[in-house]
Structure formats: C-alpha cells, structure tokens
Specification:
transmembrane helix, two-stranded antiparallel ribbon, 22% strand, Aminopeptidase, globular, alpha+beta
Length: 307
Amino acid sequence: MARREKKSKKKKWPWVLGILALIVIGVGVYLFTVYTSFTNTLEEMHEPIEREVSEKRATDQKVTLSEQDPFSVLLLGVDEREDDRGRSDTVVVMTVNPADKSTKMVSIPRDTYTEIVGRGTTDKINHAYAFGGIEMSMATVENLLDIPIDYVMQVNMEGFQDIVDAVGGVEVNNTLAFDGFQKGTIQLDGHDALGYVRMRKQDPEGDFGRQNRQKQVIQGIMKKGASVNSLLNYKQIFTALGDNVRTNMTFDEMMDVQSNYRDAIGTVDQLMVEDGVGETINGIWYYMMDDAELAEIQSTLKTHLNM
C-alpha cells in the first residue's frame, strides 16, 4: 500500500513540472509578443527631423540618455485637417532631470505673441506649426524659452481620445463644474477627456485653467500607462500610440528613458504662465507674456537642464 502511494506521488511530479513548463512558455510567448508589438509601434511612431542637435547646444553637448543627461521635450497637440497640416493648439514643454528625480512642465498659451523663427514675423505661437511644421515649432519655442528642445512629440488631438480609452480612462480632480463635468474627482473616458482639455471659454482663468486640466490628463495617462493592467491591454494601447503619435526619439532612446528616468517622470512640477495680458492688434487678440515671469521660467528650465 505504501509503495503505491510513493509511486503515485512520483507520477504526479512530471505532471506538475509539465504544467509549470507550459505556464513559463506561455508567459514567455506573451512577453515576446508584447515586446515585438512594442518595437513595431515605436518604429511606427519614430519620425526623424533634419537637425541632429539644437543650435542652443554645442555640437559636443548632444544629449546622451544612456548617461542620464537632463533633456527637454516639446509636446504638440495638433488638430489635423484635410486641407492643411492644422495648428498646434496645445504647446507644452517638459524638462527631465534624473539627478533631481523631477520633471518641470510649462504649458504655453496658444495665443502667445512671439517671433515665428524661420518666417521673419511675429504671430501666435501655435501658428508656427501651420507655417513650418514640427521644426519651425521647435525653433520658435526654443527662441521664446531660450533653451534647447532636444525631442518633440506630436499628438493628433482627434486620436487623443483613443489613447485615453486604451489605458482605461483617467481620473482627474476637476476644480470647475462645466458642460456636464462635475466638480471634484471624476473619471474621464477618451471622448470626455478631449472635451475636458479643450474647454477654455467658460473658464474664468481661460488658457490657464486649461493648462491645469491638460497637466492632469497627461499625468493620468502616464500613471495608467505604467500600470500592470496596461500591459494586459497592450494591443489597444500600442495601436492608439502608433496611429496618433510621432516623435524624433528613437527606440533605443525610449528604452533609456524607461530605464534611467522613471523616477524623474513620476514627479511633475508645473510652471504657471499667468502674469501676462491680452492685447488686440489689427483686430486679432494675442497673449503678451510678462517679461519678468518669462525670465523666471527661462532661468528655472535652464537650471533644471544643468545649463
């Protein structure tokens, strides 16, 4: 009797090991599939630009992410149109410093009156994209903030809602009730998130209120995108990113950011643009940034980039 029990136990072990092996193989295949899809998505998102380094950096000062150099990125939310490239209605600059474990973020009002570099005119900053695309936008923002822009990320705002839906929606703290959005902590799906970040006319703070809503949604996407649940829903997330995001950051550079800058990206400090005034020129309303406030923002970003 005892011999039979021992034999029975011995027979069970191969089955247990076989099941474990199948689980390991299954997980390996899943992770390989995720990695392959991720690689393909990043390659689809990659769109190189002509310049190799910003004119505000010396040739030998090119950012090396593998060495954890601080870097800057310009985020452009673009409303694409059938007959032209559209305008960048969202203009956000982020500087990332891994040593400080922090990220600075400034949302530039789209009506900001500034020099459009490469065109020889002064106009609303969001017109730079309409006139000359990504590179003219980068040059114009660099000139305004007096810092190098190392990377750029363009997001199609119509597809922005697909990205929010792909991560399962976001949670925000709404400080102003409007258009069916209740005050307080609310959950937003993609359609609602797009309306949430676009509204400004009903907000007493105008573009400044919208800046805060943009920051909340961006942080919400970053938080949800880093969760385990997002790994399980990778196909929808990768499809949304591949269809709607373009960047000059390469696959290897994105891997370096994931490895070396994770702690810095988790802490976002917003620099507010709020002391300027509105001015009408030839019947068109512009936002005039306050010189002292602009100088302070420039200094803060330069320090954060170790310049």
